[in-house]
Design goal:
Layout lengths: L1 H11 L1 H15 L4 H23 L14 H20 L8 H18 L3 H7 L1 H22 L2 H7 L4 H6 L1 H10 L5 H11 L3 H8 L2 H22 L12 H24 L7 H5 L7 H44 L1
Length: 329
């Protein structure tokens, strides 16, 4: 009942969201006519998806959105559009390696898949699918985006009016605080625990706007955390040394293992909201919860292990570059 009410309220906001998106795109249309056409085509695709998912939800294939979201569609589509536009704008010498480009695109696409396909339906009705989706948002997808290190390419491809906004003191201040080495691990683990507090989780799963806030917070926090840890540059100009990055990885690993172990071994159903809403697959409540706990426990740990390897590889590469530079001078 609550989901149907919030869904109706959410639909009423779509007109305002479309208007704001069109206004933003109008401001961004600068010199090249192709940019106008590209943004117009993006909006047209979004409008078509919105109409189809609203009027024919039962007839749509698995890869189509379960509940179309303008913010999620625009965030992923614009990220890819600005990336490829940035590649065209930058000289070849400033292009990232192919493997970094593939990593970035794969990360963005993976986030789109878990948010804007029928996977989102199963994530709302199965705890273990929900945990897989959040693993992609907070770990795998965010990890791949950070590994791509394509910030300069995105900046080159985005509209000029956005660049002063990104460089503004308020935005920089938020980034500096959230990426502080003492705060970043607490935020990373804290959000994971917060959204899984049973009483909070129940409310969020029955309220579409809060559900979207949860997903957005996990994706943004994941990208910010892994971008801090997987920065390929030495310090300076990178914010952190390899030692601090390694410590941060260790700090997030143990709490995830503990939470995963509790959920995968407990005989108490902590999330009855999935029973109330109806499970999409033939799982018992405890089996669903146990599989979800294992996803937090094992893939989360493997991601931390992979991050540690990347940090060590970067450290060795930067040391070799410094040695070559010293020898050359």
């Amino acid at each position: 009942m609550w989901r149907s009410v919030t869904k109706r309220l959410w639909k009423r906001r779509r007109g305002r969201i479309i208007f704001r998106a069109m206004t933003m795109l109008a401001l961004s249309l600068e010199k090249p006519r192709t940019a106008w056409l590209g943004y117009a085509a993006l909006l047209l695709v979004g409008v078509v998806l919105d109409i189809i998912t609203t009027n024919y939800p039962a007839q749509l294939p698995f890869w189509m959105p379960w509940e179309f979201s303008w913010p999620e569609f625009l965030a992923t589509a614009l990220a890819l559009a600005w990336f490829f536009r940035g590649l065209r704008a930058l000289p070849k010498a400033e292009h990232p390696p192919l493997w970094r480009s593939i990593s970035f695109v794969a990360g963005v696409v993976s986030i789109y898949i878990v948010l804007q396909t029928h996977i989102d339906y199963y994530a709302q009705h199965m705890f273990f699918v929900h945990r897989w989706a959040h693993f992609v948002l907070h770990h795998l997808g965010a990890f791949l985006i950070a590994l791509g290190a394509c910030g300069p390419v995105l900046r080159a491809g985005m509209p000029n009016f956005l660049k002063p906004v990104i460089d503004s003191k308020p935005v920089r201040g938020v980034m500096n605080v959230s990426q502080h080495p003492a705060i970043a691990p607490v935020l990373f683990v804290g959000l994971l625990y917060f959204w899984l507090v049973p009483s909070i989780h129940t409310v969020v799963m029955l309220d579409r706007p809060l559900y979207d806030v949860m997903n957005w917070s996990m994706a943004i926090n994941g990208i910010m955390f892994w971008s801090l840890v997987l920065d390929p540059r030495p310090k300076p100009p990178a914010r952190l040394s390899p030692l601090i990055r390694g410590l941060m990885i260790l700090l997030i690993e143990l709490p995830q293992m503990v939470l995963g172990a509790i959920l995968s071994l407990s005989m108490t159903d902590y999330y009855p909201v999935y029973t109330i809403c109806g499970r999409a697959l033939d799982f018992t409540a405890l089996s669903d919860q146990h599989y979800g706990g294992l996803i937090i426990w094992l893939p989360g740990t493997l991601t931390s292990f992979a991050a540690m390897i990347v940090v060590l590889v970067y450290m060795r590469i930067n040391e070799e570059k410094a040695e070559h530079a010293t020898a050359a001078s």
